[in-house]
Amino acid sequence: MSDADYQRYAHATLSAVEKQCDAWLDQDVIDVDTHRSGGLLELAFPNGSKIILNTQPPLKELWLAARGGGFHFRWSEGQWVDTRDGQGLMHCLSHHASQQAGMPLRFAMDATAA
Fold first, then answer.
1. Measuring CA to CA, how many Å separate 65 from each of 36, 72, 97?
2. Residue 24 CB: number of other CB atoms within 10 A?
3. Tens of pLDDT along 85-100?
4. 27: helix, coil or strand?
5. Rounded distance, CA 82 to CA 62, Å?
6. What are the b/e assignments for 70-80, b being 16+ CB within 10 Å?
7. SMART domains attached here (predicted)?
């Protein structure tokens, strides 16, 4: 994967996550505050817990840090895939966000966004 492709996929993913959080706020589902600084996106939940998504350009990976652990994802066949168990990023993010929010939350990546 080229550096430009990595940047495009990573940016689209962080933007999709931010967009979903904004939609939940607009729909009065949950107030997940987002803060983005360059390639780092922080999600802050009402209970004070956080999830961090961080780009790792030298490795061409996205890293996720949640209460439940840390995960590394590489782009493969149109999605970010966990380097250990092959799980998709959006599935993993949905799982950990739901746990930290205390309610079901689902993130999805529009395939056309990347």
1. 15, 9, 11
2. 16
3. 999 999 999 999 999 9
4. coil
5. 9
6. ebbbbbeeebb
7. Frataxin_Cyay
Cα separation, 64 vs 66, in Å, equals 7
- Cα–Cα distance measured from residue 39 to residue 54, given in angstroms and rounded to the nearest whole number: 6
The two three-digit tokens of residue 53, written as one number: 């998504």
pLDDT recorded at residue 108 = 86
Positive or negative, the CA dihedral 80, 30, 35, 100 is negative
CA distance readout (Å), 61 to 4, 20, 81, 82: 13, 21, 9, 10
| Domain residue ranges in the chain | 3-113
Give dist(CA 58, CA 35) in Å, integer: 23
Pair 93, 105: CB distance under 8 Å: no
* Domain covering 3-113: architecture: 2-Layer Sandwich (3.30)
